[in-house]
Inverse folding.
């Protein structure tokens, strides 16, 4: 997921820098003394290796955390009330990226996602936390296959991973599909959970995250290879039978790694 | 055992391919056609092929859907579609060409299709670029079925959505296994 996000943001420059107000939103899951201020968009860019992306700046006060996944600031100090005016500058992803366990039919036919347009409009409220909104890309692993490779028990492991893309228009969809169609033969290193940059609040563990720096820490590991990346999209005829007006595409990855089991 | 003199062996090696080309060709052609017919027969009698060929009223004889609905409806084909036909055309197009002389014989090259050639001519009806034949091997979602239901072009085999849920698709070896098996058999043809 970290590789996918970085690849899309780097190759596709799939983000926009925004400056504006963050609006107070209710969240029963956080401490009642905290005040959450949401931007009108989900998922801030949190990777400082993305050239041109402005990571959240200008946020007042020292006592806050940034919930990058939900596109909001949570003020934890006592100086802020629901009436406080909070503004900031931040880069938002053109596509929210989620890891999903839902089947394709559930994502496409069943789910009624809220469209959180990146096109400038006169939004005067923040977006509710936790809801998944589109444009978005849903990643999932479909299957894993181990095949004997060499004496001594080395195996060739193929992971089939899928991405379902829900886009606002065909330009956006074709952009993502063409970027990832070129991702074959790319490699990425396995990053363990302990190395994951985001904490349980959606904030960065060390206050900063740079994908290039992080991956270099694990570059002594055997890499995963994107052997094939096949892109496809829902035909227009089929799209018209959907309840929503989204453009739907798919990326099917075959990802390989040679490894010993349980290592 | 008496050994033939080396000049005699050389003479045989030089003359045999020319003299035996016709009888070899005749014999090879028969063996080739028999093997090709066997391959096509195996493809046509595969439960997945039979089920799809039977159209929207088929039973799930392949067992890929736990007996719920059938592959034709699940994949989302229209009534009247003939999804097996393009694969059959490719298999029927398998041929051989004379490749040259060998020691006391001749060699032939057989043009067996790769699985990906078959995947290229078997698109899912609702997603351009994805192959239903590959999906049989790697997994297929029930999207075609539901889209079909939404658009009301379902034919005879539509059942409730919940039934599709409980009958999730089970992958099964199909085209790749067939091609690999017969690649080996054609290679061993003598």
């Amino acid at each position: 997921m970290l590789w996918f996000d970085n690849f899309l943001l780097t190759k596709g420059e799939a983000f926009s820098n925004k400056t504006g107000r963050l609006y107070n939103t209710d969240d029963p899951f956080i401490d009642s003394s905290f005040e959450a201020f949401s931007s009108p968009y989900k998922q801030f860019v949190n990777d400082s290796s993305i050239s041109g992306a402005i990571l959240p700046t200008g946020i007042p006060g020292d006592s806050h955390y940034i919930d990058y996944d939900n596109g909001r600031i949570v003020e934890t100090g006592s100086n802020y009330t629901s009436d406080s005016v909070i503004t900031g500058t931040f880069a938002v992803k053109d596509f929210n990226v989620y890891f999903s366990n839902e089947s394709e039919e559930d994502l496409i036919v069943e789910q009624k996602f809220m469209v959180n347009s990146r096109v400038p409009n006169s939004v005067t409220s923040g977006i509710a936390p936790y809801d998944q909104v589109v444009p978005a890309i849903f990643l999932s692993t479909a299957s894993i296959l181990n095949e004997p490779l060499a004496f001594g028990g080395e195996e060739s492991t193929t992971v089939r991973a899928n991405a379902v893309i829900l886009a606002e228009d065909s330009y956006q969809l074709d952009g993502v599909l063409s970027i990832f169609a070129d991702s074959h033969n790319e490699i990425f290193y396995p990053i363990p959970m302990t190395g994951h940059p985001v904490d349980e609040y959606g904030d960065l563990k060390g206050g900063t995250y740079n994908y290039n720096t992080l991956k270099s820490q694990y570059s002594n590991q055997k890499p995963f290879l994107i052997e094939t990346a096949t892109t496809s999209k829902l035909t227009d005829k089929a799209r018209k039978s959907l309840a929503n007006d989204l453009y739907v595409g798919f990326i099917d990855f075959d990802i390989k790694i040679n490894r010993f089991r349980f290592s | 055992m008496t050994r033939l003199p080396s000049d005699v062996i050389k003479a045989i090696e030089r003359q045999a391919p020319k003299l035996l080309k016709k009888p070899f060709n005749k014999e090879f052609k028969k063996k080739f056609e028999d093997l090709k017919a066997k391959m096509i027969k195996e493809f046509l009698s595969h439960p997945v092929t039979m089920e799809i060929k039977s159209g929207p009223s088929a039973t799930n004889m392949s067992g890929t859907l736990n007996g719920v609905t059938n592959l034709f409806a699940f994949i989302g084909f229209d009534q009247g579609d003939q999804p097996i036909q393009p694969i059959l055309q490719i298999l029927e197009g398998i041929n051989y060409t004379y490749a040259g002389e060998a020691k006391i014989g001749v060699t032939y090259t057989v043009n067996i299709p790769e699985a990906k050639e078959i995947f290229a001519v078997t698109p899912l009806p609702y997603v351009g670029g994805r192959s239903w034949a590959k999906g049989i091997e790697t997994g297929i979602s029930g999207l075609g079925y539901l889209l079909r239901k939404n658009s009301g072009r379902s034919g005879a085999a539509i059942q409730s959505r919940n039934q599709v849920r409980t009958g999730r698709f089970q992958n099964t070896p199909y085209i790749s296994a067939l091609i690999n098996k017969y690649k080996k058999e054609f290679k061993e043809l003598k």
Remarks:
- The longest helix of chain B spans residues 6-44.
- Residues 93 and 111 of chain B are 9 Å apart (CA to CA).
- Chain B touches chain A through 18 residues (CB under 8 Å).
- The first strand of chain B starts at residue 96 and ends at 102.
